[in-house]
Amino acid sequence: FISLFFSFHCFIDPFQVYNTESEESLKSNVDNRLYSSEQRDSPTSPSRWGRKRRKTSSPSSLSSSDYCEYELVGVLVHSGGARAGHYVSYVKERRPEMVGTPTYGKWIELNDADVRIFPATAEAIESEWFGGSFTASTSALFSSRIDLPKERLRSYSAYVLLYERKEPCCTVSISNRTSASSIPSSLLKAVENENKIFFQERDLFSSEYAYAVSKAVSHFVTYLESDKRDTREEDESMAVQVFNMFFDYCCNSYWRLSYESRQSQVFDMSVSALRALVRLSQAVRQQFFELIVECNYKVFYSMLTSPDDVCSAWWRLLGDALCCWLEDSDADRIPKSASKLPTEIIARTIAQIRMVDTSHEWCFFGALKCMSRLVFDSPSGAFCLISDGALQVVSDLISTDWAANVPLHSNFDVRSARHLTLRLFVALLKCTLKEPQAEKYLPPKIYSHSLVLQCLWMYTEYPNDRKLCELLEETLYLLEQTQTTFLEDAVKLVLNEIWVGIYKDSWPGIMKLFVAVCRKLDDSGVGGAFRYLAMLLDGCSGNNYLNEKNIPEGLISQAEELILRFQFNKARVYVKCFNEWQREVTPCMSEKEFEDIYARVRITSMEYNGPENESGPEVDDDEIEVFSEGLR
């Protein structure tokens, strides 16, 4: 096939059909079969594609001058999808002034500013121009139990071919037939079928047809939602058939159109109808899962290059199906044997997150939202994800800062994606603490230095985003609950980073984060929670990169706040840190400032234990003196 196609010769002339019938009779017969009445008004009336039908020449009128030999001299290769992509040009060097040079007669590849000689071998031509499928090697990103399809489609192929007429044209011998010869009936039937299929497919891609089909399915959904039905088994069977046809039409026809070719109202109607069918019928959900597996999960890979709205619609549809399946599974409404396919699909969804570097942001965001729905909408959803390794995948996602490595569109909200990623991570961590069975799926070390540094960066980068900061505080708190050495390792890492001067300007934000985490640990009954803060403050006290004057002031303000709240055990930690600092630098607080603080503490404690607050805790003067001795 390669040798035939790339002999680079073609003969340009309309397709000829000869039969024993007269030319006019045959023309009328074909017109009646293939063209509608509105297209038969004129022999040259334009079709819907904007081209004019050409009259067929009779054999007697053919001459050698109508036939010329053409040579392929240019190829335009397109890669990507219908909305975005890249073009590479290939030109055959044939300029007269280049005769005798090493490049004459060779193919030149022009890829933006890169120009090189293209080796026009059969293998190179097939690889770069033909498109089609290729055999891919198994990716190391996926576990061995996830079977990826080896046969995949290339995203690039020859889009435009440029031919140049060769001289002289008389070198091609044409035998002019003086009489019409018969054509086999099989060939005539094949031509008719081809044209029939062409017109059918043309209508499949029209907005009018999409609206009609979507409207019909929407009416059927309304019927299924009514309570007046008596034939539920028949309706289930009909729903499966309707879903099969409509899902096939959307995935293989309508959703493949460019964004400009699809009407948003019709597109939304088609998505709503599919989602309603999946939510209403258990049989439809099972059929949906089987369709995904039967196509070897190709729909997952097609989402990597699909338009944004199509990608979002697909993940919403899959999320509906999986959430309803989990709800049925929790209520024991489905047999255990029916859980295999959805479990495999959940594993594929997690694998899609691993492909963040090769997919566009909406595909990644859609998969992330689908996983989040499983966690927040179903009690068993988080456990299903954890058992398939989602905890480590999401942890790696936060650690690598995917938003910095993926090209993003201007309308993509990166902060919302970070919110969603952290919410999912927090929900999975909570599940591991609540579900005893989830502990066996817990990775040995789900955190890394990169995770800690990324959390610190987000906390100091978005100090006014309270929701994001609370998620980060919750993340560190749960990691310490899950793996008890986490916060100690985090403090050591921060001290090391501060020592080399990385976080010298972010010190207030880091302190705020660790104070919040220690408070959460202390409130939940974790003993010695504030020792991590003491480690951090004590380790930073002699650092040349920090403003040492701010350290005791911070300690005193924290200690004062805790003493005013009669939390003396926590205050001792701050006093101890202050004593360590005092050994190395000169105190910056005057005695009068100390006396003012001491007086406020004393007055507040007396008021708290007065007659009006008899229920308050008893305050020992020795406890107050702890703070006094430390400051002196």
Automatic annotation (TrEMBL):
Residues 615-626 have a biased composition (Acidic residues). InterPro entries: ARM-type_fold, Papain-like_cys_pep_sf, Peptidase_C19, Peptidase_C19_UCH, USP, USP_CS. Belongs to the peptidase C19 family. GO terms for cellular component: cytosol; nucleus. It comes from Nippostrongylus brasiliensis (Rat hookworm). One of its GO terms (biological process) is protein deubiquitination. Residues 1-166 form the USP domain. One of its GO terms (molecular function) is cysteine-type deubiquitinase activity. Residues 30-47 have a biased composition (Polar residues). Residues 30-64, 608-632 are annotated as: Disordered. It comes from the Eukaryota. PROSITE patterns: USP_2 (PS00973), USP_3 (PS50235). This is Ubiquitin carboxyl-terminal hydrolase 24 (inferred by orthology to a human protein). Coiled coil: none annotated.
